[in-house]
Amino acid sequence: MSRLTYVLKRLLLAVPVVWLGTTMTWFIIFMGPIDPATRLLSQGQTRNPAAYRAAQEQLGLNQPPLQHYLDYMVDLITFDLGQTFLLYQGSSVNALILDFLPRTLWLGFWSVLIAVLIGVPLGFYAGMRSNTAADYLASFGGIVWRAMPNFWLAIMLLAFLGSLQGMIGVSWQELIVPIDAISGSPDMSRIGTVDGFLAATKKVLPAALVLGSASMGNEMRIGRTAVLEVRNEDFVDMAKAKGVSDRALVWKHVLRNALVPLVPIITSEAFLLIGGSVLVETVFGINGIGWLFFRAAIQGDLPLVGTLMYVFILIIVGINLVQDLLYTIIDPRVGLEGA
Question: In this record, what's one Pfam family (predicted)?
Answer without folding.
Answer: BPD_transp_1_N
